[in-house]
Amino acid sequence: MKVLGIETSCDETGIAVYQGGRGLVAQAVYSQTDLHSAYGGVVPELASRDHVRKILPLIRQVLDEARLSSASIDGVAYTAGPGLIGALLVGAAVGRSLAWAWGVPALGVHHMEGHLLAPRLETPAPDFPFVALLVSGGHTQLVEVIGVGRYRMLGESVDDAAGEAFDKTAKLLDLRYPGGPNLARLAERGDPRRFRFPRPMTDRPGLDFSFSGLKTFTLHKLRDELPRAVDPDRTRADIARAFEEAVVDTLVIKCRRALRETGHRRLVLAGGVSANRRLRERMERVMTDEGSEVFYPRPALCTDNGAMVAYVGWLRLMAGQQEPLAIRPRARWSMLDLPPLP
Question: Is pTM, for the whole model, over 0.90?
Answer without folding.
Answer: yes
